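[job 4417] fold queue: 2 targets
>>> target A
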Amino acid sequence: MATDTVHRRRRRSSFSSSLRSLVRGTHSFSVIPSIRLCENETSTTVDPSYIISLIRQLLPRDVEKPDVSKSPSSVKETMVMQAHTDLCSNGDMIKGYIENFQHLPVDKKGSSFTNGDDGTHQEFGDEERAGIPEHTGDSEIKDPWEDSGCILWDLSANKSHAEFMVDNFLLDVLLASLLVSRSLRVTEICLGIIGNLACHDDLGRRIVSKSGLIETVVQQLFLDDSTCLSETFRLLTAGLQGNKFASWAEALLPDQVLLRVLWIIGNTLNTVLLGKSTDFLLTIVSNQEVSTILLQPLVELGLPNLIAGLLASELSKLEDETKLERFSVLDSILGLVEALSATDNYSKVIISNEELLPLICALLKLPEKIEVANSCVSAIVILANLLVDEQHIASKFSQDFSFLQGLLEILPLVSEDPQSRSAFWCIMARLLGEVQEDDISISALQQFASLFANKSHLIEEDIESHPMEDLDESPSIPEGHNATAIFLRRLASILKKWVSVKSAIPEKGVADSNEDNESKIQRLLHYCCKYVRLK
């Protein structure tokens, strides 16, 4: 039956699978030498020796006056500085240097990190709370490490450049920097570069095969800096979307890691971080193989309650004109619920949360829907999917006239998207299927007739823009058309009942009755009958 189909839209996540080079903060770039245009003039080729020189610049060396007597990390830092001093151009020496210290312990905790530029500590989400830039410091002071790192970050978006970098031990160098650096900016750039590398399928395998790298990336989730966390989630998302997703998923499986993920998403005030982290969850839910590993543990640790809390928070901000950027966050959250509703056996998770469904319905009842159009479309698909497995909820809303009005007002927003439009008509067919016109009150009949008559132009415009001939309920007719036919047939029966009832009672006994309204009702009834051949 048409209304029993789960709806899955192709969503465009705010995380794009296309390659991106992300450079944060104010930064003056050096002119890159030895660049020549390719024949097609759409890409550039960089002198390989220049790339190698940039990689050398990234060797960890951010500690002054090391004292080998202080700690294991100091020993490691001393080794780094000495190795850098003696470094020659031989690639084997770079690799050997990395292997000498990459497994030594380092006491690296988010709470003890400082920004390498000015030495100040950035608490989780402080950038937004305090209204200060993500990275502060004297913009005139140029850091060679940052300069080189940002250039490599840009170049890593190009597949051939990225492969050359990895061939020349860039992963080893980045892993070393992540292990010993106390600079949040260094950590952010390292994660950003690896995030770009992870977008190239072939390099994704090499990232996974680099001993200790995945575990080190996952540990960055325990930092308290929103920019580093944003890049960590972007990298994890790319890893889960790649062909080596299982290795990333298994590294994320421990409860303390998943609890940390949920805590970050539930507590950050940073919209960029919230967007990247919800994209991460969306990747888990949308990939069947990944969700098999991670989704159930996340649900058991409180994912439904987290989503409900986020949705309630974002809906409460809709009337605040100073927070218009939050619309994209709302879209991400609804996209996550949409994916969850289309996942086998998880619609019950949404229904079991007492807050989620009322929140989704509250969104659909909003009088102004243009600015939240994408979210409303997601809400339509969510509701259609829930009705497939949880048919009893239709009875709760079949006579909620403000809800029905809200649904009808969304019709123009879904009219051009086949999946969303199909979901809309499936909902309407299901809801009107719950209405027994012979058993409801005269007042309810009148409300049904008046509501649909006043919104009849929306119904007619949609149907006329999607021509259909002799609609019936044949299985050979596409799903959306079938649901539309069911809806029109049910609506015609309700309108016919109202017309017959009204003619049998005095006009003064009918509240708010007027000729114009009755004319609209008669016109709509005729329109429905014309399409479904009702006599």
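>>> target B
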Amino acid sequence: MLLALAVAAGEGLQSAIKGATGTQAQYDFFHGRLLAIKQMQIHIVENRLEFSTGYRELLRGDQAGLQEAVGDAEKALVNADKQAQVLLAEAEAKALPDEQERARAVVKAFQVYKDMAQRSAQALRSGNEEAYYGTAMRAERRTALQGLEAATRAYLEASNQRSQSLIAQAQASASQAMLGNAVLLGLGLVLAVGCWLFIRSQVLRPLDEANSVLETVARGDLTGRIPQARHEIGRLMASLQSMQDSLGDMVIEVRQGVGEIGVAAQEIALGNTNLSGRTEQQASALQQTAASMEQLSSTVRQNADNARQANQLAASSLEVAERGGQAGTEAVATIRALADGSRRMAEIVTVIDSIAFQTNILALNAAVEAARAGEQGKGFAVVASEVRALAQRSATAAKEIKSLIEDSVTKVDLGSKQAEQAGELVQQILASVRRVTDIMGEISAASQEQASGIAQVNQAVSQMDKNTQQNAALVEEAAAAAGSQEAQTRRLQEAVARFKVSGAAGMQSRPQSQPAPRTRPAAVPQQTARPATARPATARPAAAMPKRPPALASAAAAPLSAPAAPRDDAGDWESF
């Protein structure tokens, strides 16, 4: 059947190749030359149209239009000559001898037309109407065009006949190919029916039997027997039988192993549960210890803050006392300056008193001399009397000012002594404040050291609390994993129990008794909460706790059914 189909396909491919080759040959045979001859005809028509345009411009007397039209006509003639040369080259390279002769005839007729067109262009360019449109030239033009048209028509008719011949050959080849393909297709169908009958009896029926056996195995029945044969499918049946026997042996071994694993998983789950309870007790005790340390740390921090504030107040007092001492020193200096000024003023007043006394003496002498002068010195005596009176008043005022200044100097001296005594007292106070400031600084430093030490202890206790809580979480995960293992063991027992194995009726899993109830140790009683500041770190940090895997979480959420026979291992785990 495959050979027939291959022959049919080869025949069809050969026919297709022949058809494609014939079509390509026909295309190659005609396309280049027909395109060249059509282009040549188009350029000849352009040449004639430009000649007509040039003759019309000649009649109108437009020399510019005439020269342009003659130039275009010559260009069209050059293009037509190129296409004629292409036609001749294509024919000599690809065409048959008779077609080559017809192509040469077309080119020869075009050369006749070309000579006539060149002479017409010269006559038209020179403006010789008689030479261009005379009777002789028109007759020559008509003859050249008719010869070119006859040669072109003969070439196209021969090409058309050749094309019809090629089409007829292609149609005959296609009909012959269709007939051969139909015969080969019929033979292929007959062979296909015969092969189908053979495959149905020798392949499909044994495969159906193997499929039914595999479906029985899929339902869990491993007791069936598979028919044997000597062909390839028979060897497949033997392999399936061997696989079924091996699978039955494996199921028996898995049943025995699952029972032993179930007992171990129950014991591990019970031990992890007890360990989880004790770890939670330890975490609760550490949590209370951490709360107490936090309260103590808060108290020490408060004392340190108070000592720091007292130290700041002492420093402020020291600064105020220093400013007071400086102000007292400046006041003493000012009082001393006032005392010096008062003494200087007393000296000045003494000088003024001396000047007034001397003025009084001079005025007295002047009065005596005026009295001696008699009537001429009477006016001078009056002036001297007035000067004397002024001198006496100045002396009296100077004495009063001197007594006041002396009294002021006495009081300033007394104030200066008192200010010096106050300055000494301020210096003593300043020394005492410095001592108090030093003592408060030492107290503040000691409080800071105590707060730092207690903070480190508190941090260590918090880290222990965090580690204990993480251990508790890990123990809970281990307990959940043990429970998950127990549940998976149970599911594996159920899965293995689905299989029916020959000779294994009495090899079911051993009956398992219910374990003792798992008791969790009593939690440590919580102490009464103190009214101190709440410790934020006592709650279990979510970020520090390792995330439980989804498989373990789902397994822990699954209810635990009755495991294997229990053992009273509470004493062992208690000692652990």
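[job 4417] complete. Note on B: The first helix runs from residue 2 to 60.
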